[in-house]
């Protein structure tokens, strides 16, 4: 994912549709028309309006609505993302993130 | 067996709103000097009308006579030229080489067998000018019995036919991540993301 994709993406929640913010965890440089540009690999996208978060996993932003994230494979994959980056992710996302955060173990 | 024509006949404008990211895609099109745009599989014309309103010279085709009629009538009612043809995705596109600056195809190309999908993409390459932009979307999250009870039959690797539901009898191919650079090998993939409907959106530039 290149940083300019943030110009296209908006919060997918119909009543929100806010602009989004991004916290990049890992990225690398790629050549685009002989110019080196950043290619984001893993990042956290957050909506400052409704408080939801969305993952960028292996360069793919995943902008699904709550009902497609709260169960099944998607929930497992996104929970793994939270676990992997929990040291970087803000506490309020881990604790009270929408649609879900990380449930403390034990 | 149901088909898109019977769906459009019975349900009218199945989709009225354009893709939610279309305003931003239009900004991108304008930055790349896109003027003439094809909507491949335009249905009843939701993106044709939206793009025409934004000043693009729009063309479209669809395999459903009823959808083509509705799209033409929608464009005419807004004062735009109805350049819409009855045509199938798996047949030679009725346009000259390099005729278009941009192509959009939203939730369409996956409704086919893989050989036909490859043919469709080849035709997209042919009618798009060098460095023209393609915006295409297709599903990645396959339907499960839980979200539809479609009674799916896998007819080739990754391609299923539902035996129940509105789209019964219509093939659905679910792309793997490995297939995308292979099928779109004549494009430079600019971006991919998963939209709010669970469809993978691909923005790509035709290689010179």
Which descriptors apply to this entry?
heterodimer, A: 106 residues, 2 helices, 4 strands, 30% strand, globular, B: alpha/beta, Rossmann fold, 6 helices
The profile of the biggest β sheet of chain A is: 4 strands, antiparallel
Q: In the CATH hierarchy, what is the architecture of chain B at level 2?
A: 3-Layer(aba) Sandwich
CATH superfamily of chain B: Vaccinia Virus protein VP39
The helix tally of chain A amounts to: 2
| Spatial extent as radius of gyration of chain A | 14 Å
Strands in their spatial order, largest beta sheet of chain B: 3-2-1-4-5-10-9
Helix content of chain B: 25-40%
Gross morphology of chain A = globular
Task: Determine the strand fraction of chain A and express it as a percent band.
Answer: 25-35%
Q: Which percent range describes the beta-strand content of chain B?
A: 25-35%
Tell me the radius of gyration of chain B: 16 Å
Taken in chain order, the helices and strands of chain A follow as EEEEHH
Low-confidence stretches of chain B: none
Explain how this protein is built.
The complex is a heterodimer of chains A (106) and B (208). By secondary structure, chain A is α+β, with helices and mostly antiparallel strands. Chain A has helices at 72-84, 91-96; strands at 21-32, 35-46, 53-57, 60-62. The longest helix of chain A is centred in the C-terminal third of the chain and has 13 residues, at 72-84. The termini of chain A are far apart. Chain B starts with a helix and ends with a strand. The model of chain B has no long low-confidence stretch (mean pLDDT 88). Chain A binds chain B through residues 1-2, 5, 7-10, 12, 17, 59-65, 68, 74, and chain B through 20-21, 24-25, 27-28, 141, 190-196, 198. Strand 4 of chain A pairs parallel with strand 9 of chain B.
């Amino acid at each position: 994912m290149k940083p300019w994709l943030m110009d296209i993406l908006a919060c997918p929640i119909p009543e929100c549709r806010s602009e989004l913010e991004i916290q990049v965890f890992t990225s690398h440089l790629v050549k685009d028309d002989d110019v080196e540009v950043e290619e984001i690999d893993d990042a956290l996208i957050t909506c400052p309006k409704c408080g939801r978060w969305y993952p960028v996993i292996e360069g793919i932003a995943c902008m699904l609505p709550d009902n497609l994230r709260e169960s099944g494979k998607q929930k497992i994959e996104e929970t793994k993302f939270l676990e992997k980056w929990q040291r970087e992710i803000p506490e309020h996302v881990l604790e009270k993130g929408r649609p879900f955060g990380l449930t403390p173990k034990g | 067996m149901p088909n898109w024509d019977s769906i459009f006949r019975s349900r009218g404008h199945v989709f009225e709103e354009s893709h939610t990211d279309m305003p931003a895609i239009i900004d991108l099109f304008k930055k790349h000097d896109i003027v003439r745009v094809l909507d491949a599989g335009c249905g009843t014309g939701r993106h044709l009308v939206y793009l025409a309103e934004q000043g693009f010279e729009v063309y479209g085709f669809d395999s459903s006579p009823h959808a083509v009629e509705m799209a033409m009538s929608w464009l005419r009612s807004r004062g735009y030229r109805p350049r819409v043809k009855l045509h199938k995705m798996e047949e030679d596109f009725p346009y000259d080489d390099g005729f278009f600056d941009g192509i959009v195809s939203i939730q369409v190309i996956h409704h086919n067998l893989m050989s036909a999908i490859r043919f469709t993409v080849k035709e997209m390459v042919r009618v798009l000018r060098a460095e023209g932009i393609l915006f295409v979307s297709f599903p990645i999250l396959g339907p499960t019995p839980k979200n539809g009870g479609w009674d799916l039959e896998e007819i080739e690797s990754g391609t299923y036919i539902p035996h129940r539901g509105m789209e019964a009898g219509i093939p659905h191919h679910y792309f793997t991540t490995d297939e995308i650079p292979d099928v779109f090998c004549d494009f430079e993939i600019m971006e991919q993301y998963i939209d709010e409907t669970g469809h993978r959106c691909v923005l790509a530039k035709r290689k010179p």
